[in-house]
Amino acid sequence: MLARRRLLPLVLVVLVVAVAGVVTVSRTSSSPSSDGRLARASADESPGAAALLDPANADVDWSEVGSIDSVRPLPRDAKADRPALYAEGCQVVAGDSEPNVCADGDPKAERTVMLVGDSKIGQWQTAFADLGRREGWRVLSSTKSACAFTDADMTSGGKPFTDCREWGRATLADVLEIKPDVVVTSQVHDKAVVDGKRSKGAMIRGLHRYWEKLEAAGIQVVVLLDNPMPTSHPTYQCVEDHADDLTRCAYELAGPLAESSAPMQRAAAEATPGVEVIDMAPTYCPGQRVCPAVIGNVLVYRAGSHLTKTFVVSAERQLSKALAKATDGAFGTP
User: Fold this and answer.
1) In the list 74, 144, 152, 176, which could disulfide-bond 92, CB 3.0-4.6 Å?
2) What are the per-10-residue average pLDDT scores of the chain (334 residues)?
3) Residue ranges covered by each domain of the chain
4) Per-residue H/E/C for 74-129
5) Cα separation of 200 and 189, whole Å?
C-alpha cells in the first residue's frame, strides 16, 4: 500500500487531431482576417506536429511561414490549454511536500510507465495517457511545481525550497514501492544546491544518484529532454500581435537550448548506465535551427517554455516512436 499518498484517477479530454490532411501554409504578409483577428482553427485545419509527418509538407520550413488565418488554441486561450492534472489536483504546489500519485492510461494493464518531475514532464501527461490507453499500459504521474527529481536541494527566488527535497525523497520511496517498468522524467531547472553552493554540477550529481537507485532496482529511467524558453515569450502574445509576420515569433534554438536543463540531463544520463534519452527537439523545432511559434496551425507554446496541450497531443506519433526506441520496443510504437 502507498502510505500517505493518494492514487487519483485523472480525467482527460481527448483531442482528435487530423493527421492525413495537408496543411496550407502562407509566406505572405497579408492580414490574417478582415478584422485583423485570428480565427479558431478546426481540428481538420490544424494537425499540428502531425503535419511534419505528411510527405506533402517535406519542403516546408515552418520558421518561415509568414502568416496564418486561424490557429488552435487561440492566443488568448493558450495559458488554459494545459493537462488535466492541474484541475485534478495531481500537480503538487509550493509549500506541499506530499506526493500525489495519479493514474491514467489503461487501468487493467500490467505494464506501467510513471512520469516523475516538475511541470516539464507534466506537460506531456496527456499524450502518455492517450498512448497508454491505445497501447495497453498504465500511466502514473507524480509531479511537483518547479521541483526537479534530484537528490539535491533547490532554491526559489534565491531562498531554499525545502519542500522540493522532501517531495523528492518521498517520491523516490513511492517509485521504489510501486516498481513501474519505466520512469520518464524531465525538469526545467538546471542548477541545484549542495553544501550551500548552487551549481549545474550539483544538479547532475543529484540526478545521477536518484536515477542510479532506480536502475539498481530494475526500473528503467528515460529522460525526456527539456525544451528551452523561446526568446519571443510570451509566445502566444507575439502570435496575437504578429499573425501577419510569424517570423518575428520564431527563435534560434542553440542559445536557449544551452541555457535549458537539457545539457545537465544529458550529462547525468551519460554518467548513469542504462538511462536512455528522448529528444523531442525535431518535433517542436523542425530542422533544429530556428524554432517556429506555430506548426501545422497549432500554437506551440502556452506559457513560458511550456508546450500547449494541443501541440503535445498532435505529437503523439513522434513521442510513441521515440519511446519505443528508448525502451527497446517495450513501450510505444516504432
Assistant:
1) 144
2) 42 36 38 62 97 97 95 98 95 94 96 98 98 98 97 84 94 98 98 90 97 98 98 95 96 97 98 98 97 98 97 98 98 97
3) 6-11+46-326
4) CHHHHHHCCCCCCCCCCEECCCCCCCEEEEEECCCCCCEEEEEECHHHHCCHHHHH
5) 9
